[in-house]
Design a protein that fits this description.
Arc Repressor Mutant, subunit A; disordered N terminus; 68% helix
Length: 242
């Protein structure tokens, strides 16, 4: 039987490698700071050097991979200072997108938001029997809910920036899984956001999204403090759990 990878065109093969590596980075299966050895990735993925290098170059542009002179590539590291900068920037962009979406979203936007909320609440957050393993299905539903909130936004540039920031935040959110307090009611936080958006109350919605994102940031900062800054080792443990 012919290997499906061999029937792909060069651009589609590079895209497949890019998508696989991106998914592994966002879920922390490739941990922050981990070296990415091109030859090993070629063997693991069964592709050419060119496909891997092009995929890594694309991830570097996105900020998920760092290129080092004479040393190749590594997964972009995480830190408290980067988290704080990322979170504040995301709050500002997310708020702009949300205000625009509330002002311009129509009936279809409202219906899609309600549907996304329904799917999110009906999808288990953790894998059954493993409290430290985040469900991929829940992560997808969570992403789609936050996209639905801003889907009425008419600015393509704002939405592009928002997607990039969300992807960067996803790594940090994955790292927060072991530190998340059971007292936090994510369904209630998301429902309050949906209701504020449907009420067309932009001020309340932006206040809630700010509180929602800041709370995750604080949870992660405490996690970093307790780990003594050993974020890479903790990411490795989480990657094994995932």
């Amino acid at each position: 039987m012919t290997d499906p990878a061999l029937t792909m065109t060069a651009p589609s093969l590079t895209r497949a490698v890019y998508e696989q590596l991106r998914a592994d980075i966002l879920t922390c299966r490739l941990a922050p700071g981990e070296r990415l050895k091109v030859a090993e990735l070629c063997t693991k993925l069964g592709v050419s050097l060119g496909a891997v290098r092009e995929a890594l170059a694309g991830l570097a542009v996105e900020g998920l991979v760092a290129a080092e002179a004479q040393r190749g590539f590594k997964v972009s590291p995480v830190s408290v200072s980067d988290l704080e900068d990322l979170s504040q920037t995301r709050i500002e962009i997310e708020s702009l997108c949300l205000r625009n979406s509330i002002a311009n979203g129509g009936l279809q936007w409202e219906a899609s938001l309600v549907a996304a909320m329904h799917r999110l609440t009906k999808t288990p957050e953790r894998v059954a029997g493993d409290a430290l393993r985040l469900s991929d299905e829940w992560s997808a539903a969570h992403r789609d809910f936050h996209r639905a909130l801003v889907a009425g936004c008419t600015s393509d540039w704002l939405l592009r920036l928002r997607e990039m920031l969300y992807a960067q935040s996803e790594r940090y959110r994955r790292l927060s899984v072991p530190a998340e307090s059971k007292r936090r009611d994510l369904d209630a936080e998301h429902r309050a956001l949906m209701e504020a958006a449907l009420d067309r109350d932009a001020n309340r919605a932006t206040r809630l999204i700010t509180e929602h994102l800041k709370l995750t940031t604080e949870v992660l900062k405490q996690f970093f403090d307790k780990s003594g800054g050993k974020s890479r080792e903790n990411a490795k443990k989480e990657a094994i759990a995932i």
